[in-house]
Amino acid sequence: MPNVISGFSKLTKSEKIEWLLDSYFTDKETARQLVKQYWNTDEKLQKLHDEFIENTITNYYLPLGVAPNFLINDTLHTIPMAIEESSVVAAASKAAKFWFDRGGFKAKVISTTKIGQVHFTYNGDYEKLYTFFEIVKPKLVSDTSDITRNMKRRGGGILDIELRNKSKDLQNYYQLHATFETLDAMGANFINSCLEQFATTFKTEAEEKLDGDLNIVMSILSNYVPNCLVRAEVSCKVEDLKSKDISNPELFVQKFKQAVNIAEIEPFRAVTHNKGIMNGIDAVVLATGNDFRAVEAGVHAYASRNGKYSSLTHCSIDNNIFKFWIEIPLALGTVGGLTSLHPLVKFSLEMLEKPTAKDLMKIVAVAGLAQNFGALKSLTTTGIQEGHMKMHLMNILNQFEATVEEKDQIVEHFKTNVVTHSAVVEAIENLRN
Ligand code: MEV
């Protein structure tokens, strides 16, 4: 166990690495080389990455893959995905091509409102608080004019501020519940700056004009954005689903719908079902420099909005039409934050033809729907392991440091054999003997 260290953040990068090596590693030279091997040779680029966070010692790579052939509202997209799970990009590409041949995806943004709250306590009379709030509300807005000027010029800004009485749930607890339109920005900084100004104005005014004790607890945006909603769907005639993997479309749609219905009523299944959706969503969110933790938190809260965790996707079969859709809240940005800093984020956004936040919401929702379609299609037909293990094969071969020739031969072998970890190990051993 190392000694507690103070002032760590003030050490140079090399000093930090040396401290780590001394504290935790027996083979210091190998560890040092590994850390340095992942540094970018372009010092300027490395410095940019170093400065994203505190105490950077090196880079942690994730593959950036692309899934082509996504037809969304009649426009073709190649979607960038940053993810480590071997089957995700393959499944997305397969689903994209499958639906390309059946009219593609339709997507629409339903709403774009975001929320922030000033949480405060007040020990006086609610009627007085309400009257005070109504008087002070225009000043809350006008005091933020420096912060909101640019956003307002572009058509966004503060939409409303409400006083919410939560004192029945928690003694003396109230909120300023504000709604915002942040256009192409994810808006976290904008919203938080507005909220902190609301809090300052509210507290100052209360000290002069309100009887009783009013104290600000905190001011922060909410990552729950049920009114920043997007919907994506696919549909086709049942018989049009016939394909290499779907020999009996009628049976397929029945089982597929059952799988969705199970996720709608059974939380244990819904969590895994939605995890598969997030495989697609997070990968695009990450590739486009957005905050996947915010998206995850908001999406799962939405999945529980009716009091029970449930599926994010739904399915219907009416008049011989199979329809499959997703509706999710997504607070995304295509300007600000990492979008103008990380070179690969800029690359991804250019590949997506410089989308607006609304365009990106549609693309991300489609990626989630496609991923879920691919997962349910496999689960209800061949099972998931066939595809998964085929993709995992390369990981196992890399663990055994297989050569290119070995890889070629073993991949060929497993085109006609079931991939399991032990079967791959056996094949490597046989080849090497
Ligand atoms: C694995 O990452 C995702 C799945 O488990 C999703 C699902 O079960 O629907 C395959």
What does this structure look like?
The chain has helices at 13-24, 28-37, 43-50, 88-100, 126-142, 145-153, 188-209, 249-265, 267-287, 292-303, 343-351, 357-379, 385-399, 404-413, 421-432, and strands at 64-72, 75-82, 106-109, 113-122, 157-165, 173-181, 214-222, 229-237, 313-318, 321-329. It is an alpha+beta fold and 433 residues long. It has 4 domains: 8-50, no CATH class; 64-110 and 229-382, 3-hydroxy-3-methylglutaryl-coenzyme A Reductase, Chain A, domain 2, CATH 3.90.770; 114-222, 2-Layer Sandwich (Alpha-Beta Plaits), CATH 3.30.70.420; 388-432, no CATH class. The strands form 3 sheets. The chain has a 4-stranded antiparallel β-sheet. Strands 5-6-4-7 form a 4-stranded antiparallel β-sheet. Helix 9 crosses helix 12 and helix 13 (385-399) crosses helix 15. The longest helix has 23 residues, at 357-379. It starts with 12 loop residues before the first helix and ends with a helix. The mean pLDDT is 96. The protein binds (R)-mevalonate. (R)-mevalonate is lined by residues 85, 272-273, 275-276, 279, 375, 379, 384.
